[in-house]
Amino acid sequence: MSRDRAVDALRAYAVGGVVLGHWLVTGLVLAPDGTLSQASPLTAMPSLAPASWLLQTLGLFFFAAGYASARSAARRRGGPAWLARRLRRLVLPAVALLGTGAAVLLAATALGTPDATLSVALTLTVSPLWFLLPLLVLVALTAPLRAAVRRWGPLRCAAPAVAVVAAVDLAGRLLPQVPGRLPVAVLAAWAVPYLLGLAHADGRLAGRRAALGLAGAGAAGLAGLVALGYPVSAVGVPGAQVSNLHPPSLLAVALAVTQVGVGLAARPALARLSRRPWAGRAVGLVNRHAVRVYLWHQPVLVGVAVLAGRTGVALPGLHTAPDGPGWLVARLCWLPVLAAVLVVLIRGRTTGAAAAARPAGRPPADGIARPVG
């Protein structure tokens, strides 16, 4: 089966949106005693909240994952071997992150790094791992979910998941102390775009009419939910009592459906763009290393901030409080630096993994190290 250029482009946009969004909403403030604390520009600049609808792209990520799982299962005929290989590709990068993080944390502790800084670094490094749990469960359920979509269609299959998220939202407002809401909502909410990805891989949701129907339904849901009092921000805001992402709310589901619909409507344009050499190389690079990019982008931000903070100078946009447009402009100037460090880190890790996977003494056939994972 050939690659679907449009879905690859959507996955690249999804990964890029998550990375860019985290780098823009994660402020690290350097105190006079050298410690780092976390802050969010959305607290001081709430007018930026609508921009989170463009950068909170987890729905597209799960849509692309569902599509890829269905295509891969069809190509390799599913089965335990396929599932083990699929899960291993998700788990091994996370294990590598945890192992490296533990070693760095031990070294930083020995060097006398303040506890507050270590706490922020640990939180930002580990927090992205949450997505692995629902993704692993959904990948494991790919076979029965595909069968259900083929029998009843994607909308009928997604309706129960939407109902569960609605029930969790209601329970959160009426009974906020009820335990267990987070894992239930996380699995149900992200099952919706995953099911849409399975359906699209099976030839459903094809055509402009279906795409515009999804986009229109999602947009209507967004407008209605905001009118009902849901927060406008698609990500959590420090100090806010209600979050659309922790746990994911109906607004997060509506946003995911809207993004999937818009993405499917833009398929021809995305396919044409991906055929251009520079765009095709960028999309291919992100797709080959999507999980690693997702896992390592926050450690890169923390690492750059901590190392630069050793100078004792609070650098604008990196160590200063996110309290106005000036901070945002300064942070934008730091993005190329963060991206360059991330690229170097990912390429170094994949080259090392490729070398370790080859038999001793045997170079690549063409002398070029190939990325793995």
Automatic annotation (TrEMBL):
Signal sequence region: none
Domain Acyltransferase span(s) in chain numbering: 6-334
Residues spanning the membrane: 12-31, 51-70, 90-112, 118-143, 155-175, 181-199, 211-230, 250-270, 291-308, 328-346
One Pfam family per UniProt: Acyl_transf_3
UniProt-recorded Gene Ontology molecular function terms: acyltransferase activity, transferring groups other than amino-acyl groups
InterPro entries with a match to the protein in the record: Acyl_transf_3_dom
Alphabetical UniProt keywords: Acyltransferase, Membrane, Transferase, Transmembrane, Transmembrane helix
Highest taxon in the source lineage: Bacteria
Protein name per Swiss-Prot or TrEMBL: Acyltransferase family protein
Organism phylogeny: Bacteria, Bacillati, Actinomycetota, Actinomycetes, Micromonosporales
